[in-house]
């Protein structure tokens, strides 16, 4: 079974999905992290698309959810911190807009989720990757709120960035993610809209967990 949360950067979907997964003891899949690992491969190829695709074919991208944290690996080496750098953030939307990269990541995700109950977060999971997902959420919040959340997150990681830089990066990514021709960020018709601008974290987690629990109990009866 797969439950998806799509939404723009900083809407709280990743941290919410992670907390829901830990609470319900299901698996968590951060699709943005996989695009970020692919972006690391792109940076390692000196931003040359030919070399990048050769390198990507030879690479192994893997992940697991353990102790409440999503761990991402490139060729068996953990890159969970590296993929959160500003350099990766600055290039990820461009790399993720490439249809071949999207196919690579989508194939990887579809294969993995066959084996367990997953909650996954991304941009196009409900529309393009998992159109038959058991439950779909679309999480939004205003730009100011999202920038502040992301800024607090990167600050706790000791990174030297300003709120303005984070806000500009999110606004830029919103535009690229929403306007790309290949599977843009878009609410699926059957997704539940969750506006987190005025919700606190516990409320977001409780709202989504309850919907999943309701579905699981309906399926049992
Ligand atoms: O969730 P995130 O901010 O870590 O995602 C990083 C980038 O990956 C985001 O700017 C767009 C891209 N992405 C995507 O195109 N499709 C997804 N399903 C998830 C992320």
Put the structure in a nutshell:
With 221 residues, the protein is α/β, with parallel strands linked by helices. It has nine helices and eight strands. The chain has one domain (2-207): P-loop containing nucleotide triphosphate hydrolases (Rossmann fold, 3-Layer(aba) Sandwich), CATH 3.40.50.300.
The overall pLDDT average reads 94
Strand order of the largest sheet: 2-6-1-7-8
CATH topology call: Rossmann fold
Structural class: alpha/beta
Number of domains: 1
Strand segment count: 8
Distance between the termini: 17 Å
SSE pattern, N- to C-terminal: EHEHHEEEHHEHEHHEH
Radius of gyration, whole Å:
17 Å
Shape: globular
The number of helices is: 9
| Residue windows where pLDDT falls under 50 for at least 5 positions | none
Q: How large is the share of residues in beta strands?
A: 15-25%
Assign the CATH class: Alpha Beta
